Amino acid sequence: MKAAAPPSPTHGSPRAVVGSQVSFEEEMFGAAFDGRVVRRFWSFVTPHRRRLWIGVAAVLVFTLTQIAIPLVLRHAIDGALAVGGAGIEVLHWIVIAFFAVAALNYASNFTQELIVGRISGSLLFDLRRAMYAHLQHVSLSFMDKTEVGRLMSRLQGDVNALQEFLETSIFAIGDFVLLIGIITVLLFLDVRLGLLTLSVVPVLIVVRIVWLPPARRAFMRAREASSVVNGALAENVHGVRTIQEMGREAVNLDLFDDKAKDNLHAHLRASKFSSVMIPIVDTLTGIAMAIVIVVGGAMVLGQELGLGVMVAFLFYVQRFFDPIRSLTIQYSIMQRAMAAGQRIFEVLDVPVEVRDAPDAAPLPREARAIELDDVTFGYGPGRPVLRNVTLRVEPGETVALVGPTGSGKTSVTALVHRFYDVWNGAVRIGGHDVRNVRQSDLGAHVAMVLQEPFLFTGTVGDNIRYNKADATRGQVEAAARAVGAHDFIERLPEGYDTMLDQRGANLSLGQRQLLSFARALVADAPILVLDEATANVDSYTERRIQRALARLLEGRTAIVIAHRLATIREADRILVLRDGQLVEQGTHEDLIGLGGLYARLYRLNHASFDDFSAEDAVAAES
Amino acid sequence: MSAPAPSTTPDRTLALVPESVRTRRTAVAFDAGVLLRITRMAFAHPWRMALGLGCTLLAAVAQLVIPQLIGDAVDFAQGLLASAGDDAAARDALAHAAALILVTSIFRGLFTMMQNYQGEAVGQLIAYRLRLALYAKIQKLSFSYHDRVHTGDLMTRGILDIEGTKLWVSTGVQRSLLLSVLVGGGAWLMMSIDVLLGCLALSFVPFVALGASLARLRLRTLWYALQEELAVLTRVMEENLGGIRVVRAFVSQAFEMARFDVISRRALTIAHHRIDVFVKSTTTMTFAFFVSMGLVLWTGGEKVLADALTIGEFASFLAFMAILQMPVRQIAWTVNSVARTSTCGGRLFEVLDLEPEIRNRPDARDLDIREGVVRFENVSFRYRKEGKGPPVLRDVSFEVRPGRVTGIVGPPGSGKSTIAHLIPRYYDVDAGRVTIDGQDVRDVTLGSLRRRVSVVQQDPFLFTAAIDNNVNYGDPWAERSAVRRATEAAQLHKYVEHLPEGYETLVGERGVSLSGGQRQRLAIARSVLPASSVIVFDDSTAAVDAATERRIHEALADVTRDRAMIVIAHRLSSVMYADEILFLEEGRIVERGAHDVLVALGGHYAALYALQTRSNDGAEVEDGAGDEAPAG
Ligand SMILES: Nc1ncnc2c1ncn2[C@@H]1O[C@H](COP(=O)(O)OP(=O)(O)O)[C@@H](O)[C@H]1O
Ligand SMILES: Nc1ncnc2c1ncn2[C@@H]1O[C@H](COP(=O)(O)OP(=O)(O)O)[C@@H](O)[C@H]1O
Ligand SMILES: [Mg+2]
After folding, report:
1. What is the dihedral of CA B346, B347, B348, B354, to 10 degrees?
2. pLDDT tier at A11 (50, 70, 90 boundaries)?
3. Which 3 state secondary structure label does DSSP give B18?
4. I need a surface site. Which of A208, A464, B318, B378 has the fewest CB within 10 A?
């Protein structure tokens, strides 16, 4: 290693990065309309169908009132006020009509906004719930290879995009009707002037068509830059302890600054694109108004046009471009929503591989024997992790599973609980194939202590109890006592009611392991699986746990994966796995007598039977 | 989608539902203060702000002029209609009015564009600064802060709150100005034409102002409550997905869904409520506007008929109101943005204003290593200062000299990791002191201290990046050969070499694609790479087999020759060669000495040793050892 010198920023740029280097799925530049996505999405809308139609009706009424108001004004001028108007009588009627339209406008506005807001809000929650519920059941192999952050971005960002889509689509209907309505009214009022005024529309459409592709790219770049920046921020939050430990603050801040600057520039560019449309639209509005005044004025002069019509034209022209603008924005939103929808439905389409058979039978409580019958299994195709494993654990027996890291010990336990289905052979509990029993029964039957202790935000007591909601305080305490956790829990500020920090950060790792152990005991299942449950606990504590367990395990079947000899020797029988195959089994004495792998490993490392790497195993054999 | 399990009573389901709403409500910053502070930040870009606001003013003026021009044009036409007079002059007048309208419209567009762009630019610049400040602050806040605060909470602040905070400068300020000028200028113009009609045309403004203010308060609280619920929801989902194996192992999907539904429903209720308030206020405002317009129509029409008003003036009143319609609708929107900005800004500044508990003293100097002797002198410590119960460490004293090894053993929770945390000053001691070469760790700069102290954590965090980037994390300028040597020492090089992409292989989220033992070895490589003087192994070989571990220690022997080393382990073979072994129990050192001494002592350590070796000595040790061991 090199001489003691602080890392000096002088020689070149660091080989360093911030933020996840696994790139998030790029936003797809796909079709703006994907029939499949829309159909699937529609199935989420159907429960709200009736209210939705009311909403759409309200949007239409609202739009009509918007079209009507300049018409009312026109009548006020032409019918009552202008030269040759009918005077005060008509004016009063018109004012009454105006108030009626305004009231209608109010009612429909209220209804449309409320309904659309509420439905799209509910839809957001429905979609998220459906996805979340599905994730509870999809195969673990999918979960194994998918980052939590990625799923979260689907549960949040993508769902939001679809919500926005629904909201804007309904209003887009209104915009569309408004556009058609205004055109119709203009042409109806005066064809010639109408056509002249409308001549600016193709100009705007052409401008939008030219503008849209680069603008959309700029908007997309901005969104990408945002997600990069947020990813880097997330890394900073999650890895903050390591960052401080390794003194990476300055380097990371520099790197982050680059990304933040990039984000800034991407957003500024996007903002240029959206701002530049404003003067264009205003200029076109100005041109349209000028046309109305010059041509319309001349027509008024020639008595071909009422003054009120000209005023109405001036009003319509000012409202004219809004719908065109929102409709083009709608196009981008739709494109984004389709991509989001594809990702959401991709998750919803992940097959649930492990599911209850239609005729799944209940698992009787006295089913205790565990049997693997010629089991072959792997996580990825063509790469079996367990090969033709046949083993049997008798009811009430405690069996130790030993072998080097990666030999397949955890995989055996995963199969007993049917986290995955076997490729070949069968796993049976009390003679019942696990594929033929209900998963909920299996869960109640097999309690597991997983290799990595995972705790939830909540109190200590709630974590031990977990989903066994009816467990009494006594049961919780008994479990905690059995694993030797009671004493330290009592010393916590509020005992069993102490809130744990995120993932139990306010406990030591060994303590977390004990809680996760206690959680399995509370479940009170006839079969217990311990996967390196005491790896971070000292031998003495481990010994105490064993003593307590000896009583608790009375009559229960147990599979214990462990390193330490003391633990292993306690078992009734020892099974030795290597490279996914069962190579030896028997009692400690049997195996020592056999002089096989176990005996050699045992001699090599008398203090603990640890995860031997494969080379050690080879070394031990030769 | 599963129905809630029948066995889960509602109150129990709630048990694991975090309730942040009640606990963190207090964190609302005072409105005006926050807005003022953000506005001040905006004026750090004076010319952009000036340009933006100037253009806002000009756009508003142009906006005000247009209705007048429309009115004039209508009057011309009306006049022509009435007099049927001079054709050419009339056409000229109309063309003139049309040209003016066109030019004004173009200017209005240009000014609005500038206003829009500059507003957004200032907003983005502020967002950029806030983002950087938050990032830097998160890096600096002490471990104790991060222990307490959930990561999801910080992420919300970094994403939603920054977005919300910039809203006020990017659009709020400009819109408020635009609206005041439009209303003020319009009022003046209209009043100068006709006072009564002007009053009527503006009669909706006070209603809107009142309604908006009331709505603003409601929306603000609702927004805040919604954010809190969504943060809780995010946390629950994240934990569920992260702990999916636990969920599957306990078949608790129904329980988890019930938990999700409780929060989700709570959030949805608030979201709906927010929509209600929002819709009610916006639609009422629009209605008030139309009522005003109706009154103008009525009274104005009568005046026109009575010849007290020209029809053009009447049209310009209506045109003016039409122009005002958009900004008036936006009042509600602006109100919402003000509410959002003040809550988001409040939450953000709350973090930015925190002083890290652990920070350099004003007179701190760099750590000056002469030998590298670590000393604990009567150290007492607890994590929660307000907590009752005994301290986590009590009166701990020991010394590690360079080139020597101190082993620490003890039951879970006895304070072993805590000792490791105090040397690089992740936390400050409550009593006593920790020194390196006689310098109290609190008196030296954190940077220099942490550069000289490496801790290999029990549960290492790996970054989603290449293996190379992970190993050189502490010294990104390190040569590749140095990375390789460190990896070799950690007995990981052979594995890495055989990967298709070698050192460029990405390690997945939290290093999932590596086994537990490999992750620990990567963490060891990462920690031995920088040239530290003190190195602490915190149970960092629990998932590494003993033979490999021995090779690691042999490989590290020449690296650690002149470093002080502390080894925390449960496997006694890892510590038995230490120069001194401390046996920790409930935060106290209950036994100390070399392995042979402790074994001869026949106390806790000897009992532990017997437990781990009894198979060697035969069955007779087996039970005796367990019984002799004093109850922990
Ligand atoms: N979720 C998984 N996805 C893909 N491969 C896995 C997964 N879990 C384990 N493996 C692989 O399967 C093999 C056996 O692993 P495991 O059963 O965990 O072994 P052990 O428990 O004996 O250490 C290893 O090669 C490991 O890399
Ligand atoms: N971040 C923390 N906040 C509050 N309490 C903590 C924190 N970390 C550890 N503790 C408590 O301090 C005690 C000692 O923990 P630790 O030093 O991690 O034990 P170990 O000896 O197992 O390494 C334990 O009781 C633990 O609950
Ligand atoms: Mg395993």
Report:
1. 100
2. low
3. coil
4. B378
pLDDT, position A531: 86
Specify burial of residue A296 (Cβ count, 10 A radius: 0-12, 13-18, 19+): buried
Split at pLDDT 50, 70, 90, the class of B545 is: low
Pair type for strands B580-585 and B405-409? parallel
What count of residues does chain A have? 622
**Structure confidence at residue A83 (pLDDT):** 66
Structure tokens at A305: 């046009």
- Residue whose Cα lies nearest atom 1 of ligand 1: it is A144
pTM of the model: 0.84
- Compute, in angstroms, the gap from residue A262 CA to the centroid of ligand 1: 40
In one-letter notation, the amino acid at residue B459 is D
In angstroms, the CA B430 to CA A244 distance is 21
What residues in A contact B584, CB-CB < 8 Å? none
The answer to whether B598 and B581 have CB atoms below 8 angstroms apart is: yes
CB B263 within 8 A of CB B229: yes
Nearest CA in chain A to B525: A1
| Chain A contact present for B427, CB below 8 A | no
Examine the pLDDT at B435 and tell me if it is beyond 70: yes
CA of A544 to the centre of ligand 3 (A): 23
For residue A561, give the nearest of A528, A599, A602, A539 by alpha carbon. Answer: A528
Contacts of B475 in chain A (CB under 8 A): 7
What single-letter DSSP state applies at residue B569? -
Contact B441, B449 (CB under 8 A): yes
Residue B429 near residue B379 (C-beta atoms within 8 A): yes
Ligand 1 near A413 CB (within 6 A) = no
Looking at per-residue confidence, does A301 or B438 come out higher? B438
Measured from the alpha carbon of residue A419, the closest ligand is: 1
Q: A516 by DSSP, 3-state: which? A: helix
Q: Note the ligand closest to the C-alpha atom of A576.
A: 1
Three-state SS string across B92-132, please?
Answer: HHHHHHHHHHHHHHHHHHHHHHHHHHHHHHHHHHHHHHHHH
In chain B, domain spans: 27-352, 374-593, 595-627
Ligand 3 center–CA B571 separation, angstroms: 18
Strand ranges across the sheet with A424-429? A383-393, A370-380, A424-429, A432-433
| Cα distance between residue A395 and residue A252, in whole Å | 56
Q: Which helix (H) or strand (E) holds A5?
A: none
CB contact under 8 A, B245 and A140: yes
Question: Which of 3.40.50.150, 1.10.110.30, 1.10.10.10, 1.20.1560.10 would CATH assign to domain B27-352?
Answer: 1.20.1560.10
The CATH code for residues B374-593 is: 3.40.50.300
- The pick from A354, A375, A377, A379 for probing ligand 1's pocket by mutation, whose C-beta has the most ligand atoms within 8 angstroms, reads A379
Q: Does residue A583 surpass a pLDDT of 50?
A: yes
| d(C-alpha A360, C-alpha A126), whole Å | 29
Residue among B183, B174, B32 nearest B114 (CA) = B174
Phi, psi of A83 (to 5 degrees): -55, 125
CB within 8 A of A520, min separation 6: which ones?
A447, A448, A449, A528, A530
Structure tokens at A45: 């809308």
> How far, in Å, is the centroid of ligand 1 from the Cα of B509?
17
Q: Is A448 on the interface with B (CB under 8 A)?
A: yes
Minimal C-alpha gap between A389 and chain B (Å): 22
Which residues in chain A (132-171) have CB-CB distances under 8 A to chain B?
132-133, 135-137, 140, 143-144, 147-149, 151-152, 155-156
Whether A493 sits inside 8 A of B95 (CB atoms) is no
Average pLDDT score, chain B: 82
If you count them, how many residues does chain B have? 632
